[in-house]
Write a structure and sequence with these properties.
Layout lengths: L1 H13 L5 H4 L7 H4 L14 H66 L1
């Protein structure tokens, strides 16, 4: 049995060792890909925390101001319409009172002429 193990062990060592790197595909690039393009895209500057915060604050303030402006404008329109309706109602009441007073004055004049 020992005689069988020795030739098997020698055969294992006599085989050429294949390295996995030789089997693996190597990556190659052409000379065109290695060249940098002449018109490279400029890198964007990162927006700092102060600039971003200031921009957000100004945007929020502007939006809040615009919302408030349109809210106040709508309230002004509604109150103006109500005031106009009240003025027309008051004018109609004054005209009715004026008409009633005129009829009373005519009746008083008619009674005084009869006496």
């Amino acid at each position: 049995m020992a005689s069988r193990m020795i030739p098997t062990a020698l055969r294992a060592f006599s085989r050429p060792v294949v390295q996995p790197i030789q089997l693996a595909r190597t990556f190659r690039t052409s000379s065109q890909l290695l060249e940098t393009p002449s018109a490279a895209i400029p890198l964007r500057k990162p927006v700092g925390a102060f600039r971003g915060g200031m921009f957000g604050f100004l945007l929020g303030t502007t939006l809040a101001g615009a919302g408030t402006y349109y809210y106040i404008l709508d309230e002004y329109r509604v109150s103006n319409e109500l005031l106009t309706e009240d003025i027309y109602a008051l004018q109609a009441a004054v005209q009715r009172i004026h008409k009633y007073v005129n009829t009373l004055e005519e009746k008083v004049d008619a009674i005084q002429k009869k006496k």
